[in-house]
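Write out the 3D structure for:
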Amino acid sequence: MKSKDKPARPGSKIIVGVVCLLLAFTIIPRAKMVWELSAKRDRLEQQKVVLQKANRELVAKEAKATGKENMEKIAREQLGMLKNGEKALIQVAPKK
């Protein structure tokens, strides 16, 4: 016996088309959102690298600024302080 192929219902193509459209309307916005979030993540990763480098530079500057030698230099030059036993020399400008 030969089996006869059932003819396709005319409404089945419409139903398949509607289901495909519904799937497209639900998948496309989510795919777009995933793409946008991925791009945003990449931008934030780049910004993170730049900020980490700036942070390392600032930490190094802070360590240098709070070092004993630098504090002594500031105390001498800007505040006019002296160590114990030192005498201050005052330069006198020659009269013209």
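Helices lie at 10-65, 68-77.
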